[in-house]
């Protein structure tokens, strides 16, 4: 066997059995434990990767993520968490982002999950540096809020005007730009036109994050090929989940 994986779950028998079968095909030994600190600690010997399959039991039980945090601190083990966006958000209240090697969101592609876990067990899937997101918005309060929302999972740089962003892009290449539509002096449309006209920035993905949702505004930027269009009025969880999905799939899905 290549290494040991500990699956922490209660219920979800079909999902757990599917994951066990797929990891078994990769010659990876997998053990299971109920989501309690005592049961988990009994099974961690020899485990290189812990997979926490979240459920309702993540709410109101801080001792569970505290246990996982202790077991994975200092690089002793790699931690993967699986769950809905709400469940993952609850886990992140206790476990810092740097200790979570992989997050898998519902709906799961179990073959992809098994493949990524297999890479971790075999040493080929260590955690990558955080993706770099450039925010462009003249609303200082909204920038501050977004930095708070995204800062635990991404490297976030905030710029307060279109020209400040263009100057920044002359020397940096972020993985994604979140661009406001309405800004004084240089609008979001003008900024995107400049981004697309420069060879060094032309291929950087851009998602509009704006208060404008009228059809004319959307159609005005279609020819500039933005990757997506998000509304500031959407719930925080939807905005975060949309950005996460983009990085996971490199394709845009309207929430």
TrEMBL record:
<dbReference type="InterPro" id="IPR050595">
    <property type="entry name" value="Bact_response_regulator"/>
</dbReference>
<keyword id="KW-0597">Phosphoprotein</keyword>
<feature type="modified residue" description="4-aspartylphosphate">
    <location>
        <position position="180"/>
    </location>
</feature>
<dbReference type="GO" id="GO:0000160">
    <property type="term" value="P:phosphorelay signal transduction system"/>
</dbReference>
<keyword id="KW-0238">DNA-binding</keyword>
<dbReference type="Pfam" id="PF00072">
    <property type="entry name" value="Response_reg"/>
</dbReference>
<dbReference type="InterPro" id="IPR001789">
    <property type="entry name" value="Sig_transdc_resp-reg_receiver"/>
</dbReference>
<protein>
    <recommendedName>
        <fullName>Stage 0 sporulation protein A homolog</fullName>
    </recommendedName>
</protein>
<feature type="domain" description="Response regulatory">
    <location>
        <begin position="132"/>
        <end position="247"/>
    </location>
</feature>
<dbReference type="InterPro" id="IPR011006">
    <property type="entry name" value="CheY-like_superfamily"/>
</dbReference>
<comment type="function">
    <text>May play the central regulatory role in sporulation. It may be an element of the effector pathway responsible for the activation of sporulation genes in response to nutritional stress. Spo0A may act in concert with spo0H (a sigma factor) to control the expression of some genes that are critical to the sporulation process.</text>
</comment>
<dbReference type="GO" id="GO:0003677">
    <property type="term" value="F:DNA binding"/>
</dbReference>
């Amino acid at each position: 066997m290549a290494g040991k994986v500990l699956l922490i779950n209660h219920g979800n028998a079909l999902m757990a059995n599917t994951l066990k079968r797929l990891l078994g095909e990769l010659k990876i030994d997998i053990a299971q434990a109920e989501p309690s600190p005592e049961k988990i600690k009994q099974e961690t010997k020899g485990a290189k990767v812990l997979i926490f399959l979240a459920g309702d039991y993540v709410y109101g039980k801080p001792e569970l993520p505290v246990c996982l945090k202790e077991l994975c601190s200092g690089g002793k083990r790699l931690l993967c968490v699986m769950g809905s966006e709400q469940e993952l958000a609850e886990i992140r209240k206790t476990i810092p982002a740097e200790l979570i090697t992989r997050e898998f969101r519902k709906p799961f592609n179990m073959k992809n999950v098994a493949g990524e876990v297999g890479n971790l067990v075999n040493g080929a899937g260590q955690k990558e540096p955080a993706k770099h997101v450039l925010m462009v918005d003249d609303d200082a309060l909204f920038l501050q809020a977004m930095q708070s929302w995204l800062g635990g999972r991404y490297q976030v740089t905030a710029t307060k005007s279109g020209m400040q962003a263009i100057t920044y892009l002359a020397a940096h290449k972020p993985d994604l730009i979140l661009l406001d539509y309405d800004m004084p002096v240089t609008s979001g449309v003008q900024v995107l036109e400049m981004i697309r006209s420069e060879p060094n920035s032309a291929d950087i993905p851009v998602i509009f994050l704006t208060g404008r949702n009228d059809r004319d505004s959307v159609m005005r930027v279609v020819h500039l090929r933005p990757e997506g269009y998000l509304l500031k009025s959407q719930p925080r969880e939807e905005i975060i989940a949309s950005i996460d999905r983009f990085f996971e799939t490199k394709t845009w899905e309207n929430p």
